[in-house]
């Protein structure tokens, strides 16, 4: 920390706005032409920056969360956002224009993005009527921006770290820079680690030894939450996932976490997931139970096809009440319906509400797996879900895999139900 402190003394970073400073009209620098984009009515240029149109839904979800958080702040407390890897600045712009942020710090290591970011933000006043700065743009390593704000005790309500690869090297400082009860929005594109193909890398980055499992993309989200939880605990904080989002464009794993002081209330939500390649069942284990598995394994009582990954987050992927509020806001804003290239947020958020049921264990089963294990054609997904629910099980779709179900019904019984559905359909023909 001493080295960081010394660094910050000679920092060229803008400090907090000085009271009474008069507003300076923004200068509009020139941005590269022909790269105009629009998201939910907000226009911006992308130039040569790293920009993915497919990430618009991740930005929509971030903006909805930021707006909900702004509503929860005490009167007079404006929303402060740190967009640590802003690219062309689209998120910063949307946090200002759509979520009503009072202040956004837009940072990207690439100085080449500067004209673009300035141009995109220039439509938004740089100073509030009270003379407070509304946004600043810097080009530093994300960790340095986080460290300098932390050292100056300048905290944020939302820190957005939209990184390439693993986000784990930014996690500690990002958590430290968040106001009590604030939000951390993190992204990882490390699909190899979540797929179980690099267990030593997942161990190094997230503290989890991950083995190949059929629901590896859900494991990726759980690995990300588990890694954040571990870092937070070391700093004396606890985190709770508000929503988790996987997108196959990348692939990209995003989680929105609420950060609070103190220990995790529910310790049983951090443990191990086992999967049996032989029978298809999965199970969760606490630290204590893991000891029993390895003991049983040594005695040859557990099939060799069982793999165990962890420790990971084993609790719900989403907070159902929170996602319901997001859906309500999306509906209020007219974002719930699909519009051209935009993702159908209503469908996505409803799927998240279904799969956030705390009674659902981690993992999902693809219909193909049910069909292949039962040696039959796949039953219709919605019919199987309805049947399982009528039989008293919890069942929902997964936003991660469109042809999969999440259920607390053991796979052998699922196959029986699927077989009955198939038989009754063919009898009706
Ligand atoms: C995935 S892109 C960001 C995209 C942007 N958030 C959006 O929604 O369009 C990641 C960005 O991080 C920047 N970057 C990479 N490493 C960085 C670091 N260590 N610190 C700050 N920025 C970094 C890159 O220049 C790149 O623009």
Automatic annotation (TrEMBL):
Keyword Endoplasmic reticulum among record annotations: no
GO molecular function: tRNA (guanine(26)-N2)-dimethyltransferase activity; tRNA binding
EC number assigned by the record: 2.1.1.216
Main EC class the enzyme belongs to: transferase
Catalytic activity entry: guanosine(26) in tRNA + 2 S-adenosyl-L-methionine = N(2)-dimethylguanosine(26) in tRNA + 2 S-adenosyl-L-homocysteine + 2 H(+)
Source organism superkingdom: Eukaryota
Keywords carried by this UniProt record: Methyltransferase, RNA-binding, S-adenosyl-L-methionine, Transferase, tRNA processing, tRNA-binding
Cellular component terms per the entry's GO annotation: nucleus
InterPro entries linked to this entry: SAM-dependent_MTases_sf (IPR029063), Trm1 (IPR002905), tRNA_met_Trm1_C (IPR042296)
UniProt GO BP: tRNA N2-guanine methylation
PROSITE patterns the record matches: SAM_MT_TRM1
Keyword tRNA-binding: yes
Entry similarity comment: Belongs to the class I-like SAM-binding methyltransferase superfamily. Trm1 family.
Listed name of the protein: tRNA (guanine(26)-N(2))-dimethyltransferase
Organism: Musa troglodytarum
